[in-house]
Amino acid sequence: MALVRILVDGYSLLHNWPELAPGQPRHSARAREELVHVLTRYHDATGTPVTIFFDGSGAPVGTPAHESNPAVEVLFSRAGQTADDMIERAAHRFSAYGEALAVTDDVAERDTVTGVGGLASSCANFIRMIESALTELQDELRNYNRVERNRFNRKHERDLK
Fold this sequence. Notes:
CATH topology: Rossmann fold
CATH architecture: 3-Layer(aba) Sandwich
Number of strands: 5
CATH class: Alpha Beta
Order of helices and strands: EHHEEHEHEH
Structural class: alpha/beta
Strand content: 15-25%
Number of helices: 5
Radius of gyration: 19 Å
Shape: elongated
């Protein structure tokens, strides 16, 4: 089956990625924004939609509303609900369409997701996946630009003759 969506425990990933938004508290709006930015770039590189789940009784006061879109969705749990609850429900619902990948360092959560037919990854492993995909995208863009620059220069040289 194809990977249909990546389900990220946002705070779990932030706590395991101190290089992301360095110097910012892990629960800060700035750290969350940086995570959304990086995961948007990851979606651009891979094409796999991402949903980021944050624990909390709804979005914290003053949090700018992120418009959800099919590429990267940001959700906050409501009172009496955890990000884990939401991830489990989403993994179960997506199982009819293909495999969902849950990203968390909560081993019990990973076991639950794999039990409903999903895939699971530790945060450290997913960070390596992101860095690899973004490096590959950067290399592809650099090569594409080099080829296009050479093509333009050859055409420009022919036009000058």
